[in-house]
Amino acid sequence: MMIGFLIALLSGALMSIQGVFNTQVTKTTGMWVSNGWVQITAFAVCLAAWFFTGRQSIAAIGKVEPKYMLLGGVMGAGITWTVIKSIEALGPAKSALLIVIAQLAVSYLIELFGLFGMDKQPFDLRKLGGLILAVIGITIFQWE
């Protein structure tokens, strides 16, 4: 449990830093060159990691069901684009807050309704309260 907590914190930190890096690269190269660079360098890292850590079957990707689950990479390009555009418009802190609120809300709905093959979870007033508290927090954060 603790390792998952630490990995989640690292993930959030890396996403924030990556968003700023990508936004800066976009200023020089343009949106799709920057986005392509992000995706191709991620592919290179994954290829190197695969080569050194076990070499699971690449053909297994064809066995994934349902097939729409293979759209993660397409979503990755969209995520990169939306993060860059939101940081350009709002700055890193406001963007991150709104992104996290959206992640919380969508993740809770996925759990609540058991979407995309996830185990369905019962409604939890505490989780809803936490989400509402996060929305209040971003309102306070943006208040000028």
Question: What would you say this structure looks like, in words?
Answer:
- This protein is mostly helical and 144 residues long.
- The chain has one domain.
- Helices cover 76% and strands 0% of the residues.
- The protein contains five helices and no strands.
- The chain has helices at 2-29, 31-53, 72-90, 92-113, 125-142.
- Helix 2 (31-53) packs across helix 3, helix 3 (72-90) runs antiparallel to helix 4 (92-113) and helix 4 (92-113) runs antiparallel to helix 5 (125-142).
- The chain starts with a helix and ends with a helix.
Strand elements, count: 0
User: What is the N-to-C succession of helices and strands?
Assistant: HHHHH
- Shape from CA axes? globular
Straight-line N-to-C gap: 38 Å
The class by helix and strand makeup works out as mainly alpha
Q: What's the overall average pLDDT, rounded?
A: 92
Number of helical segments with 4 or more residues: 5
Rg over C-alpha atoms, rounded to the nearest angstrom: 18 Å
Biggest beta sheet summary: none
Count of the domains: 1
> Roughly what percent helix?
over 70%
- Enumerate the spans where pLDDT stays under 50 for 5 or more consecutive residues: none
Share of β-strand residues: under 5%
Q: Which terms would index this structure?
A:
144 residues; 5 helices; mainly alpha; single chain
Short description:
With 144 residues, the chain is an all-alpha fold. Helices cover 76% and strands 0% of the residues.
